[in-house]
Design a protein that fits this description.
The relative contact order is 0.08. The protein has a single domain, classed as Alpha Horseshoe (Serine Threonine Protein Phosphatase 5, Tetratricopeptide repeat), CATH 1.25.40. By secondary structure, it is mainly alpha-helical. α1 packs parallel to α3 and α4 packs antiparallel against α5. The protein has five helices and no strands.
Length: 137
C-alpha cells in the first residue's frame, strides 16, 4: 500500500517538474514572440514619415524587453535605429543623448558589439552634421 502512494507521489512530482519547466519555456517563448513582433513594428514604422512618436514607443519597449532577455543584438540595433531616426528628423541632441546612453550601457556590460554599434551610430550622425554644415557654406 505504501509503495503505491510513493509511486503516485513521484508521478505528481515529475508532472509538477515538467509543468514548471514548461512554464519558464512558455514565458521565454512569449518574450521572443514579443521581441519579434516589436522588431517588425519598428521596421514598418521606420518607413513611415509621420510615425516618429509610435516608432520611439516601439523601440523603447523593444529596448526594455531586450535588456530583460539579454538579447544584445536586438537591443543595440533598436537603440541605433532610434538614434538614427531622431537624427534624420533633425533632433540631433536627442540622438546624441541616446548614443551616449547606449555607449555607457555597453561599457557597463562589457559589450564589444554595443561599443561598436554606439561608435558606428555616432559616426553616422556626425557625418550627417558635417554634410549639412558643408551645404550651408
Amino acid at each position: 500500500m505504501m509503495a503505491k502512494h510513493v509511486i503516485i507521489l513521484k508521478s505528481i512530482l515529475i508532472m509538477l517538474f515538467l509543468v514548471l519547466g514548461k512554464g519558464q519555456t512558455c514565458a521565454q517563448s512569449v518574450a521572443v514572440d514579443d521581441i519579434e513582433q516589436l522588431q517588425k513594428d519598428m521596421y514598418r514604422l521606420a518607413r513611415k514619415s509621420d510615425s516618429l512618436q509610435q516608432f520611439i514607443e516601439v523601440t523603447n519597449r523593444l529596448i526594455e524587453l531586450s535588456k530583460k532577455n539579454n538579447n544584445e543584438d536586438v537591443l543595440y540595433r533598436a537603440w541605433s535605429n532610434q538614434a538614427s531616426m531622431l537624427s534624420a528628423e533633425g533632433k540631433r541632441e536627442e540622438a546624441m543623448a541616446i548614443v551616449k546612453e547606449m555607449s555607457d550601457y555597453a561599457r557597463e556590460h562589457d559589450s564589444k558589439f554595443g561599443l561598436y554599434t554606439a561608435t558606428f551610430t555616432n559616426a553616422q550622425i556626425e557625418s550627417g552634421l558635417r554634410m549639412e554644415h558643408q551645404v550651408e557654406k
